[in-house]
Amino acid sequence: MSRYGAMYGPDLTFLGVPACDLADAASFADADVVIVGAPFDGGTSHRPGTRFGPSAMRQACYLPHDGSRPSLALRVDGLRDLRVYDAGDVEMFSGDIERSLSALEVAVHTVASAGAIPVVLGGDHSIALPDATGVARHHGLGRVSLVHFDAHADTGDVEFGNLHGHGQPMRRLIESGAVRGDRFLQIGLRGYWPGPDVLSWMAAQRMRSYEMTELVARGLDTCLTEAFRIAVDECEGVFLSVDVDVVDPGMAPGTGTPEPGGLTSRQLLDAVRRCCYELPVVGVDVVEVAPPYDHADITAYLGNRVVLEALSAIARRRRDAAGGDPWNPEKPLLDSR
Amino acid sequence: MSRYGAMYGPDLTFLGVPACDLADAASFADADVVIVGAPFDGGTSHRPGTRFGPSAMRQACYLPHDGSRPSLALRVDGLRDLRVYDAGDVEMFSGDIERSLSALEVAVHTVASAGAIPVVLGGDHSIALPDATGVARHHGLGRVSLVHFDAHADTGDVEFGNLHGHGQPMRRLIESGAVRGDRFLQIGLRGYWPGPDVLSWMAAQRMRSYEMTELVARGLDTCLTEAFRIAVDECEGVFLSVDVDVVDPGMAPGTGTPEPGGLTSRQLLDAVRRCCYELPVVGVDVVEVAPPYDHADITAYLGNRVVLEALSAIARRRRDAAGGDPWNPEKPLLDSR
Amino acid sequence: MSRYGAMYGPDLTFLGVPACDLADAASFADADVVIVGAPFDGGTSHRPGTRFGPSAMRQACYLPHDGSRPSLALRVDGLRDLRVYDAGDVEMFSGDIERSLSALEVAVHTVASAGAIPVVLGGDHSIALPDATGVARHHGLGRVSLVHFDAHADTGDVEFGNLHGHGQPMRRLIESGAVRGDRFLQIGLRGYWPGPDVLSWMAAQRMRSYEMTELVARGLDTCLTEAFRIAVDECEGVFLSVDVDVVDPGMAPGTGTPEPGGLTSRQLLDAVRRCCYELPVVGVDVVEVAPPYDHADITAYLGNRVVLEALSAIARRRRDAAGGDPWNPEKPLLDSR
Amino acid sequence: MSRYGAMYGPDLTFLGVPACDLADAASFADADVVIVGAPFDGGTSHRPGTRFGPSAMRQACYLPHDGSRPSLALRVDGLRDLRVYDAGDVEMFSGDIERSLSALEVAVHTVASAGAIPVVLGGDHSIALPDATGVARHHGLGRVSLVHFDAHADTGDVEFGNLHGHGQPMRRLIESGAVRGDRFLQIGLRGYWPGPDVLSWMAAQRMRSYEMTELVARGLDTCLTEAFRIAVDECEGVFLSVDVDVVDPGMAPGTGTPEPGGLTSRQLLDAVRRCCYELPVVGVDVVEVAPPYDHADITAYLGNRVVLEALSAIARRRRDAAGGDPWNPEKPLLDSR
Amino acid sequence: MSRYGAMYGPDLTFLGVPACDLADAASFADADVVIVGAPFDGGTSHRPGTRFGPSAMRQACYLPHDGSRPSLALRVDGLRDLRVYDAGDVEMFSGDIERSLSALEVAVHTVASAGAIPVVLGGDHSIALPDATGVARHHGLGRVSLVHFDAHADTGDVEFGNLHGHGQPMRRLIESGAVRGDRFLQIGLRGYWPGPDVLSWMAAQRMRSYEMTELVARGLDTCLTEAFRIAVDECEGVFLSVDVDVVDPGMAPGTGTPEPGGLTSRQLLDAVRRCCYELPVVGVDVVEVAPPYDHADITAYLGNRVVLEALSAIARRRRDAAGGDPWNPEKPLLDSR
Amino acid sequence: MSRYGAMYGPDLTFLGVPACDLADAASFADADVVIVGAPFDGGTSHRPGTRFGPSAMRQACYLPHDGSRPSLALRVDGLRDLRVYDAGDVEMFSGDIERSLSALEVAVHTVASAGAIPVVLGGDHSIALPDATGVARHHGLGRVSLVHFDAHADTGDVEFGNLHGHGQPMRRLIESGAVRGDRFLQIGLRGYWPGPDVLSWMAAQRMRSYEMTELVARGLDTCLTEAFRIAVDECEGVFLSVDVDVVDPGMAPGTGTPEPGGLTSRQLLDAVRRCCYELPVVGVDVVEVAPPYDHADITAYLGNRVVLEALSAIARRRRDAAGGDPWNPEKPLLDSR
């Protein structure tokens, strides 16, 4: 396998970071992070279009594509303080979900095995199965917890006659043992799916799912603190899966299964920052950005910023671990940090 | 009159609930709720398009149209735990507002007289006049209070030379005695209309109008609690009228008279839930969803979810009244409820 | 199998024609035409969205959904003079192209075997393989010619590692013997695909492909006359496959692989009319209408009108065959026809 | 009545021509042309929005709003060589079609009585009834023929329980005697409406309706020549009514009842030019431009250019009548004209 | 120089306030406020379109353009209680930034010199340089502080080889001495620009920049109170510069350099109100509304409402200063205020 | 100068052709064609956005970005049979038109001097001045004729107080002597600009401008044949300047100054093909593609295909000149060519 490049548009790297080739181990041997595109929407139950998500998220920025993004908030450069490469897209034919997910799992495992954090740009949420599996195969099945921002639990069983699809990856991950049910932390659920049977199954797995009602009643930060404590209990790493539909569709319309009543963009960015700053994140995916339903690229921008927020916080976590002052959100921007 | 079906598109029912025919009393004899479409925008002072609101709100969902929607938050199925029918659209020619509103009043009264809760899908807000009148004629003039979410007071007098229109229904309701002025609870007003004369008239009626400034300063929940207490004072029932423009146009662009600075979608859904869970709601309308100005159906989705939220809360209220545990918003999703 | 209904939205029939159930032979025993939805876009190489094509084409009309459409041009009612049913959608999971195409082939063959003309609403062009195969299995392999309006030849071999996809159905049909290569009439090709190897293969099959250059230089009607003569040579029936991208993307933007320089909508409608009036059409599909990329439903309207034009012309052909005056396009509208 | 100004936006004049006030006869005493806005869409059977047509058509231009538009093709300035005023909008409440149409008829008659040509900017096609009636009342009932570009015949009887609406004005005009049935020239009809009964009625009135089939088969120019000959037989004046949906919806999407297969923009402009250059036009309306469904203002631009084309041709007709060289379309642009 | 009128569309005034001509001092001699359009986007580093901002903000309202807007929240009419004129647009060719900014500075200074508050409708943020300079030249260099709502610091040095552009005005203002660095109050910064060098320069100027992190952690109102205290320290006046991109792009998509994670519309309106009610504002600009990227005019509406909020608060401040009761946000709308 | 890359998005090459660097002569020493991006819209008089034209035209294709595009019509591969490089964008700050145009002229001249054909992707039409000048400086002032497809003559004098802008380049080219007035061939003019004075100036220069009226009356092909004959009279080379607004805005909405009544896309592609096949083209620009006003990328696709059509025809011209059979548009696609 040589570098595949982009299926859906030109072969770009995320904001201009260096390219690598997963078939050439030397090309990313020193990587801290490898970005992987998963242009797949064959698992979508409703509106497709996420196959253009990787290209859109790589491009959505008004600043030069120069491989550098110094964070105002965290005072690190997530693209420079970490060694970040972009491996391009994995070939994923939307008409063949099994082969496509397998190919992605190989790619993600390749990255994880090299000691780097895979950051996968979806694609629909079907890809969380190979994403988290690929990471767990390296770090140990059941040794990676999953922090999952989403409007939907994604724990369906068989849908459209198939075990795979964007409503089912979390069930498959638990069934396979890749992730322990009681190390699943779901944030932002709401709406009218799944029904009681699936909820019972989830309860039986001892999943911890924070529906919006609870988040509003108890406060998002309180719930995150509680969830993060569970996430690191008996787990060495955390996989962060961000479905952009966790944000209210009024603010993030470019997605396939919009569910009103979600988080604000600000809340999501802050939560991702906390997750990556406070927890030992070993893998990330950002999914369900569907450009055909977007307007003025605002959802693509949000996906891009979720990635940057994650990378910035990982970089800051490493810097602070190396002896820096801990990050203080109340400090004025222009005070020395 | 036989079932009219849809004027603006195919004859659909709301998310697949059974159809009924208002001309055939047997077809909805056991109904708890009857949905009625009011595809009318002849009363709109600015951007039209709400005639497509009923069709859009009936369809806006990524889940199967199977007449079932189990609420994650409330653990009831608003479409199954209640007996819900959809009577289709009332014939309403936008070029003849008087005849159209009369036809709708007949339809709403027919539903209320059968002991069911009418849920009217607008249409522009002109329809609140026949909606609340039709209900009040059954429950008693002046015996139904009105909880009204809106950016606008809708208490104008004559506009465009006419007594009817989407800026005037609330005045007509008070003048006719259908609803007492001091049982009008308005939530979310803002902007630059109406002027001092109309405000004086409103004050003279002893209406209680919560402008956004007060909601921000005192807190939405505090204000709702206060308003709800008034609503049930000497009234047996509550009519809930939700103008989608109460939400900020940034989150709900598909409407005719957008006024920046509104509620979030999350706030509206929570407020509707509280209203229908805490109060004896006897009628509902959801108005001013204008699909031509919508993007990616997000405003139609919001309208759909407002209906579901109302039905879910009504179902939960009935379940709890029948002896269930009261609903606790702080309880985790997967704990037995 | 019971009637499946709609995967992507409510269960509608085409402009209100009666529903039937392919699992219940009696429900369409007297059908002249059965409409079948193929909501599948797993075979799309670029922009997805055609899964919403069936729903969009069924609804795109400003007239009542009453199962009647009297043609001004042909003075027949394609939905009433013929017995037309709508079987709803076939379950087609976009993530599994092989199973999906098989399910569609069964459905189409079921219709053809009942003596009716299947009219399949796509979906991407992958479905032409099961569409034409299902028909040919009934009428005889190699006994049905194929008139194919398209910007693309769709004769690719393996793409994305798969034999199936929307760029390959025509090759598969020839390889399987379902349709003879020299009875393939392609109208409207243009652009930059396929390359010389595939063109050589096509020439070897003795396909007859009319690129836009030839159509402009010789005249569309001249070319159609020539093509239609070939189509009925040693063939009993004709399958008409209309890819909406044969029309210029300026007039039909809602499609996945737009190629500038196409026919006008008027030209396509006239050509479809001629095809169905002059030839013994035994099956039709209309594909590649992708609503997410459409504007103001204009491409969905065009797809809807292609279906109506085909049905009207079939009805007129039957009427004239039964002894009516032949159709004369120069006759004034209001002269008795 | 004082100058009403704009209902739907600021009070603008068409490309900056001088304003006049219909209540002040002196303000337009010397007018050749008076533009009148008819912001009404209460008669629309499907997509509304034409109430914003007048404002959109007045503004849609990239050149300065300076009240001058020298035509390259005709070498006259339709806004300066004629004395053109803009009377603003007539107050037309979309919820009351009868009152609204009456008010418009008064306005149009006022203009015609002053010896000027009214040019009415719609609004939906309901307005053709007051437009042509207002003109005919001045020039003589039955003395003005009607040249009508449209996809639809607009000869329906009762619809939505009403005699008025955008599908019925032509019938009302004939019934009232304002326009003779055999002086109705309809250009561009197509599609699936009206049905046989209405067509029989039309034939009985001896209307002459050119469906697209005939236009394609015989040639648009041939048909226009024939129609124009009829138009001036026993009639002193011609009313030109242009429904923008006569153009293919691919090129003019911003309209309410799009019917694929229409004229090109070029064809319409050329036909309007011929009509106003060759015939004694005494009134014009341009209707059915619906901005909410438009994209990048292209339909509004088309409406604006239809007005300019008409005014330019009227100006050129007058110049040539005053002794100029007749217009020659084959002459190079830069030759002295 | 005579009144220039509008470059980009018809010559409108803001919601119908009277026009004035900057070349004719008498035409605005008694003005409290003069609105000036700055249709310039030649300084934009990414998406252009703000040249249409002035026209869009002037028109974006569903109420009559009658020069009156009584504020529900503040019970004053910002357009009537103040004497407000609109001077039209300044001629600003986007291809020549230096000449354009100079022309604007002259216009703003002319307004300020007449004792009126200039309210400039942008245009891109390049215009803050002439806006604040024009005001400071009248009130005294270094005597006017700057309250600046924005996602970006706009303190870049040379970009695209030029000293001017929408990312640099704040630096130029400090360098020239027009505004003191330590009287710059920036609210809402976030994202990934500028880098450390520019931040160091900003710190050296003793600017006070509130990044979103601090605003969330400490509370927006707390930060505003702190900032406002600085603003009036040793300064007689405050210039308020509102870049609409301070609001989250999900709620205000029509802008050129969208940065996710911003304020809500409600927060911005409340903050602008506080600023203009609590501080001695002597100039305002509202910039970066880019209509080509807007949807359903929601961003234009927001810009319009920011202007109205500012004017209403200024009017209320003056009324209260003249002896009225101070404004109390907790007071019910219908209580006498 | 090192390779500048893209100002407005990532650094892409046109459909994947190799990159070159204008500062490194060796990188394009063997080039037949060098593509240059001119992301400039500072000269636009109305809607901006063409700065994103180069990026959009480089990307707008559903086929792999592999640097190969075999033309069905011409049976050559314009990207492979010619040696084509992409030099990236020239730095052009839209706020400084003079500096920007100078920088582009240097770039174009560099390409021409190397013996390659520059193909410039605009950008607004201001760039035609440096484009044609840069070429003429190499081939000889007055020795290159200009074939100009456009709705507008672009021969204005001073506008917005400036000699440069997108309405003036053709005048500047004639004034400077770069192109002879009587070797200017303009195709597709229409509308209401320029006025008589400018037309007189044009006539005095002996320009030959084909307005749409003449094109319709005499036939496009007849006019092209006439124009092409003039173009090669006493000129060694032809510069082809294609303003995408020559196509009807209904088919090409993504542009700044849309003028209804234009060519179809098919007509433009055929005309460009003829121009590049029949004439000795030495430079090309494709301008006025404005992505913010585009829909579903259809105008960007058209711009991309204009470039490909030009390159294909140049390649075929060279092949035929080298002894191949002349191209015959009537020949079937699959006959050996």
UniProtKB/TrEMBL annotation, chains A, B, C, D, E, F:
E.C. code: 3.5.3.11
Residues binding Mn(2+), per UniProt: 125, 150, 152, 154, 243, 245
Record-linked SUPFAM superfamilies: Arginase/deacetylase
Co-factor: note: Binds 2 manganese ions per subunit.
Keyword check for Manganese: yes
Gene3D superfamilies, alphabetized: Ureohydrolase domain (3.40.800.10)
Record-level Gene Ontology MF annotations: agmatinase activity; metal ion binding
Keywords: Hydrolase, Manganese, Metal-binding
GO BP annotations, alphabetical order: putrescine biosynthetic process from arginine, via agmatine
Classification via NCBIfam families: agmatinase (TIGR01230)
Protein name in the entry: Agmatinase
Organism name: Micromonospora costi
Lineage, uppermost ranks: Bacteria, Bacillati, Actinomycetota, Actinomycetes, Micromonosporales
Gene: speB
